[in-house]
Each structure stands twice: as C-alpha cells, then as structure tokens.
C-alpha cells in the first residue's frame, strides 16, 4: 500500500471519441498517469450507458472502442487501473445502499436529468417545461413509449458510487459533470452523518493547472460535441478529416486590415493554435491582418496539421481494435484490481450499516 492520492474518471460508451474528448480529457488523464503522483483509475461507464437503453450489441462494441481509444491515447495498464464498470458487481450493491440516502427531489432537480428527461419525452423547445414542476408533471403523465426510467433519475447515485467505492480524492471531469460531483460530496456527507462515521471523504474536481483545451466545432459553434455533428473523430482517416475541414463554415474574408475576427473564423484560428506551430499561426494571423488570407489555404493547413495529430492515434486504435483478446485481457486484469478495492469499501459500508460481512 502506498499513500498516493487516488484519481478516478470515466467515460460513457455512447460512441467513438472525438478530438474534443482527447484534448479536453483523455490527454490529461495520460499526463496525470505519467506524472506518477497518483493511483489512477480510468473506467468505461457501461452501466450508465444503460440509462438511455442502447442496443446491446452496439453497447458492447462501444465499450471495446473506448477501451482501444484509452490505450491508443496512452493510458497504460501497467500504470493505471483500466476497467469496465459492469465488471465490478460491488458497484451495483453499493448503489442500492446509497440510494436509500438520496432524495428523488434532488435527483429530479439535476440539470442533466431534466435535460435527458426532456429529450426522452420529446420536449424540444428550450423554455417549454423548463420549470421543475412542469418537467415532473410531464414525466408522471408520460405514456409508456415515452418513459423516463428510474436509472436515469438515479444516475448521480451510480456516479457517486463509482467515485466513493474507489475512495477517489480527485475526479477530473468537465463543467457539465460538476453538479454530479457536488451531489457525490453531498451523498458522502449524508451517509457519514446518518451512520455517525467519517468514513467517506469528499472528492474534488481536478484542476490541471492550466485551463483545459476547449476544441471548437467545425460548424462555427463554440464546442466540438457528438450531438452537434461537428466532430473530428479519432478514428477518422486523413481524407475524412480533410473533407470535414474543407466544409467548415467561413465568411467573405477579411474586409479591412487588422479587423477583429468573427466567431466562425476565430474558431479556425483556434484549431491552428491547438494543432499547428506558433510560426504557422503567426503566418496566417498576418495574412488575416493584411487582408491577403485565402480560406482554402488556411483550411488545407489545418487539415494537414490535424491529420498529423490524429493519424498516429488512429493507427494505434486500429491495432488495439483488431486485438480483441488483448483488450479482454486488459479489462479482466483491470477489473481484478478495481474489484479488490471496491470489495474493501463495500465490506466496510456493510459493517457500518450493521450487515454481516
Ligand atoms: N457521468 C460521466 C459523463 O457523462 C461519466 C461518469 C460516470 C463518470 N461515472 C463517473 C465520470 C465517475 C467521473 C467519475 O461523462
């Protein structure tokens, strides 16, 4: 046993990972892993994926995809515990136990829940049903083909269990998960106070020191996202990447020297900043400023530099994806380690409650 702080994070296997996932999250996981200061746990949240009732075949393919993508990005089973959530049955038992201390009201007020419930019910207008009460009424009155399942409601309990069962100190997650992390701390405190114990500590988000890289979308929107359909995937080949970049939204070009750049153009420059050299950035910046910039040239440059970042990762993804036995072995070995620590926590929780261990 060592005294290293524990870091844990997970990704839901709902599709392939894109450049935003890689630069915003995964590459930081790898950096932290390689610093060697932490005991790290990185997992694939396939139980969470069940909340949106995926096709089972697709789900299992996606789990393998993410596993291959984790490894291709540089997560190393020799340095981190890499595992699949559903391989840890202790999580499910603790989920039941923790749920007894979680209020349905606080779950229903969670932003991610309201968002997903609205989607399940087909409420699309941004303001319609924005009110907690309206959403609640819609859910209760929904016909069976527009169901909001109980797993979706208790998503934060399951996430809290992922974190607490491994006794994580730090949980590197994006802004959209901060509310879930706050709930995790609240549930931990509540459990402690109910059972008059100090067993659970309160996990914190991880601050990378510098702001995480925010990758814009190719459609002029501020953020690359799966649901936005503006992504470069880590599995995209060079041709696909080039095509996507060449299609990116632009305008009529710079009209006056040294004018500010509209958002869609600034996004392209953000790509340059992320994947190109400072010299290249400066070159195009000057071209913009003296109004000689041709967007075709700019896009060709971005496409080439993006390909240089993505291609080596893609090759590794292909290697791991073709090695399903290796993937299964890595998942099995990761699960063994993760189960042992989960078991120890669950035993302690059972003891605290007064159950036989
Ligand atoms: N909810 C997270 C997401 O959608 C995935 C997740 C599940 C997670 N359990 C976790 C992240 C535990 C960090 C820690 O991205």
Describe the protein in words:
- Helix content is 56%, strand content 6%.
- It has helices spanning 19-35, 46-49, 56-73, 89-99, 104-108, 111-121, 132-141, 150-153, 155-165, 178-194, 238-246, 263-275, 278-289, 295-322, 324-353; strands at residues 5-11, 38-44, 80-84, 170-171, 204-205.
- By secondary structure, it is mainly alpha-helical.
- Strands 1-2-3 form a three-stranded parallel beta sheet. A two-stranded parallel sheet has the order 4-5.
- Bound molecules: tryptophan (TRP).
What descriptors fit this protein?
single chain; mainly alpha; 15 helices; binds tryptophan
Largest sheet report: 3 strands, parallel
- Taken from the alpha-carbon principal axes, the silhouette is globular
Secondary-structure element order, N to C: EHEHHEHHHHHHEHEHHHHH
Q: Please state the CA-atom Rg, rounded to the nearest Å.
A: 23 Å
N-end to C-end Cα span? 23 Å
Number of strands: 5
Give the helix level as a range of percent. Answer: 55-70%
The number of helical elements comes to 15
Q: Which structural category fits the helices and strands?
A: mainly alpha
Low-confidence stretches: none
Which small compounds were modeled alongside the protein? tryptophan
Mean pLDDT: 93
The proportion of strand residues reads 5-15%
Lateral strand order in the biggest sheet: 1-2-3
């Amino acid at each position: 046993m060592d005294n290293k702080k524990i870091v844990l994070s997970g990704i839901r296997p709902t599709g392939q990972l894109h450049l935003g996932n890689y630069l915003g999250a995964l590459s930081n996981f790898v950096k932290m892993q390689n610093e060697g200061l932490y005991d790290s746990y990185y997992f694939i949240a396939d139980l969470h994926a069940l909340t949106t009732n995926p096709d089972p075949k697709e789900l299992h393919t996606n789990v393998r995809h993410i596993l291959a993508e984790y490894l291709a990005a540089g997560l190393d089973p020799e340095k981190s515990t890499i595992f699949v959530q559903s391989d840890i049955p202790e999580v499910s038992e603790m989920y039941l136990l923790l749920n007894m201390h979680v209020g349905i009201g606080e779950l229903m007020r969670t932003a991610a829940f309201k968002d997903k419930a609205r989607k399940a019910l087909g409420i699309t207008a941004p303001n319609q049903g924005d009110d907690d009460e309206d959403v609640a009424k819609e859910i209760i009155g929904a016909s069976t083909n527009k169901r909001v399942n109980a797993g979706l409601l208790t998503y934060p309990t399951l996430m809290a269990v992922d974190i607490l069962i491994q006794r994580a100190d730090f949980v590197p997650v994006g802004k959209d998960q901060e509310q879930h992390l706050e709930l995790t701390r609240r549930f931990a405190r509540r459990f402690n106070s109910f059972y008059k114990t100090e067993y659970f500590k309160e996990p914190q988000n991880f601050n990378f020191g510098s702001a995480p890289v925010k990758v814009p979308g190719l459609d002029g929107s501020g953020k690359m996202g799966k649901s936005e359909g503006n992504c470069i995937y880590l599995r995209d080949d060079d041709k696909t990447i080039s095509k996507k970049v060449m299609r990116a939204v632009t305008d009529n070009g710079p009209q006056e020297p040294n004018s500010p750049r509209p958002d869609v153009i600034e996004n392209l420059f953000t790509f340059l900043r992320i994947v190109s050299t400072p010299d290249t950035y400066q070159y195009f910046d000057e071209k913009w400023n003296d109004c000689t910039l041709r967007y075709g040239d700019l896009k060709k440059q971005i496409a080439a530099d993006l390909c240089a970042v993505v291609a080596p990762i893609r090759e590794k993804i292909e290697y791991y994806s073709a090695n399903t036995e290796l993937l299964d072995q890595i998942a099995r070995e990761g699960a063994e380690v993760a189960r042992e620590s989960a078991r120890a926590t669950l035993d302690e929780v059972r003891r605290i409650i007064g159950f036989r261990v």
